[in-house]
Amino acid sequence: MNENKEKQMDKITSLAKRRGFVFPGSDIYGGLKGTWDLGPLGVALNNRIKSEWWKMFVDGREDMYGLDAAILMNERVWEASGHTGAGFSDPLVEDTKTGERFRADHLLKDSGIEAEGLSAAEMDALIVDNNVKSPAGNVLSKVKDFNLMFETAVGAEGKYKSYLRPETAQGIFVNFKNVVDTMAPKLPFGIAQIGKAFRNEIAPREWLFRVREFEQMEIEYFVKEADWEAEYEKMLHDLRAWHRHLGLSDANIREYEVPANDLAHYSKRTIDFEYNYPGKGFDELAGFAYRTDHDLKSHEEASGVKMRYTPVEGAPFIPHVLEPSFGVGRALTAVLCEAYTEDTIGESDRIYLKLPKHLAPYRVAVSPLLKNKPQLVEKARAVFTMLKAEFGNVAFDDNGNVGKRYRRQDEIGTPYCVVIDFETLGEEDETLKNTVTVRDRDTGEQQRVPIAELASYLK
Ligand code: GAP
After folding, report:
1. If you measure from the C-alpha of residue 117 to the centroid of ligand 1, how many angstroms do you get, rounded to a whole number?
2. Is the pLDDT at 36 greater than 50, yes or no?
3. Mean pLDDT estimate for the chain
4. Ligand 1: which residue has its CA nearest to atom 26?
């Protein structure tokens, strides 16, 4: 992969740390592998991604119902869904000398051998036949299936086994009957949920890309079996619109049809939306699976509770399901990668985040030209308070000189900077009284805008 692109990812992750987007988890104790904490600007961006998603897929439609299920669930859920079995395991190998653990399929891939969809025994044979060694050059152990779920014990006596959910989807399936009984939805309809998921990944890596604790935004869209292909096409269209709404360019998105031998244990068709991450190339951003009636059927069999939909005419039946599944962290990574821009403005080089306005942590930053002039500060505070009431996400920035503030706000993607200067006070030209300078992040151009028109201008 091209070196510049690799460096670009380093620049993005260092900006993210320097500017309060993403910190390593448990930082002062040396971190905890596979965990990251969102800083003040990271949580703002993350929340915006989630609220835009909810607006588009739940509030913006009449066929979707929201849900927020518990993370801890009865262990029988995971038996019925197949997650306690081999279907939710990754192939683990150990360096026999250092004890370091790796994913066998990744080591094989690094040696130019494709192992997607193969069993542990098949990968074992490939490792032996091709004399594949650990990155340190040592012999590898036998490949074994390693289940990715975090197990935990519930209650003071620890009598009940449970797991931190590895996907939000099962919370939806388990509530299918509750939603049908309370909301009387018409088929096709979907249930959407945003929440944390946990996977004990063998090798967490590449920043937020593969972590052990992450957030998902998932929809289970229930359809008649006969309609699944037509509904799949319609939903594909909506998923493309979502990625455009995140500001991701079509050129950086690829749709990958997952081959039959690599489909998840529940899926008959899956398209992965891949993003062209700098230094890494195209890799998964979100998935869109046709899960048939696998989950509802399994839960009906295991629980003894009927998971059926009753049509106006005809007998109750188990609907089939389409599942768009998005990782919030991967969306946030893609949004930052897409937005990261280096250019020259005036005489100087700068870095800026060309974030879509609806995602930027701050909509606008307000500052007085000079912070030691009380009238400027007072007026700036008044404008700040007015805009804060309107937008909420408004920054007051009086650190350093105006040039430095512009650079700083550019770097965190603030679309506009408003400056209150002596003209605002009407000291030089009465006609400019109560107007402010509004600077545009992308062009650096400045306009004078009356304070009374500011809120609508910034919208
Ligand atoms: N319910 C289906 C499901 O969970 P998945 O492909 O395993 O499917 C869906 O996960 C999405 O969740 C992925 O496309 C990715 O965005 C995100 N995801 C999965 N594992 C992840 C991990 N270890 N770290 C970060 N994101 C992850």
Report:
1. 17
2. yes
3. 95
4. 327
Two tokens at 224? Answer: 């008649």
Which of these, 168, 191, 170, lies nearest to 180 by C-alpha position? Answer: 191
Residue 228 CB partners (closer than 8 Å, separation 6+): 290, 320, 322
The pLDDT of 341-369, averaged and rounded, is 95
Which amino acid makes up residue 305? V
Is the CB of 165 inside a 6 Å radius of any atom of ligand 1? no
Q: What is the pLDDT of residue 348?
A: 86
How much distance in Å is there from the Cα of 211 to the middle of ligand 1?
10
Is residue 267 in contact with ligand 1, taking CB distance under 6 Å?
Answer: no
Whether 169 is in the pocket of ligand 1, judged by its Cβ within 6 Å, is yes
Cα separation, 226 vs 241, whole angstroms: 25
Tens digits of residue pLDDT in 279-321? 999 999 999 999 999 999 999 999 999 999 999 999 999 999 9
Write the residue with the smallest CA distance to atom 22 of ligand 1.
210
> Which pTM was predicted?
0.95
Helix, strand and coil in the chain, % to nearest 5: 35, 30, 35
- Average the pLDDT over 189-197 and give the result: 98
- The pLDDT tens digits for 117-167 are 788 999 999 999 999 999 999 999 999 999 999 999 999 887 899 999 999
Query: Ligand 1 pocket test: which of 22, 89, 90, 167 has the largest number of ligand atoms within 8 Å of its C-beta?
Result: 167
Residue 210 CA, closest ligand 1 atom number: 24
Per-residue pLDDT at 1: 45
Distance from CA of residue 228 to its chain's centroid? 26
Contact 328, 50 (CB under 8 A): yes
How many Cα atoms are found within 13 Å in the side-chain-facing hemisphere of 285? 25
Helices 328-339 and 40-54: crossing angle, nearest 10°?
110
Which amino acid is located at 341 in the chain? T
Determine if ligand 1 sits within 6 Å of the CB of residue 216: yes
Is any ligand 1 atom within 6 A of the Cβ of residue 167?
yes
Residue 132's closest CA among 98, 99, 96?
96
In angstroms, the CA 426 to CA 379 distance is: 12
